[in-house]
Amino acid sequence: MNTTATKIPLGRALIAWQDIRQAITPDCERCEVAGSVRRGKHEVKDLMGIIRFAKNGPRYMAFDWLLNPTGPIRVDLFTATHENWPLIYMVRTGPSEFNMMILERARKMGYRILWGKGIYREEDIIEPVDREKPMVKTGAMAIPVASEADIFTLLDMEYIPPEGRGKT
To answer: What is the pLDDT of residues 77-122, one digit of tens each?
Structure first.
């Protein structure tokens, strides 16, 4: 969250994102903005991005990026693999109401989405007894999706662009 608790214009956030992207690109294969910036909100309180390292890296990074004269903006970077990129990108673009709708739709279609892991058939999931998170049965494979559009197709939905996923 922005430590100054103020919002900044989208254009300023995009300029900051380009600076951040340039700074981390040497270590990354892919780096994309997510969250409210990707949804095109006119003002944002933080920056969120998804990155895929060329080599193993941390799963999550958070830091403040100085924006003069407004002060720092909070930056959250989440890592993804080639296989889970579409899911991570979708959930981190949000908003949470959209993510909940996607989860409910998947359940109605007989799928389970485990953010960060993949989309599985319901029968491939073991419900927890004494654990908080569901487990995937041994040998079960995630349903391959190469893009967010593939997720919408799997769920028999029209593609919803990021700017249509929440209030802007």
So the answer is: 999 988 899 999 999 999 999 999 999 999 999 999 998 789 999 9
23 burial via Cβ count (<10 Å: 0-12, 13-18, 19+): exposed
What are the structural domains, with CATH classification, of the chain? 8-79 (3.30.460.10), 86-156 (3.30.210)
The model's pLDDT over 18-71, given as tens digits with 9 standing for 90+, comes to: 999 888 877 788 999 999 999 999 999 999 999 998 777 777 888 888 877 777
Give the residue carrying structure tokens 């958070």.
62
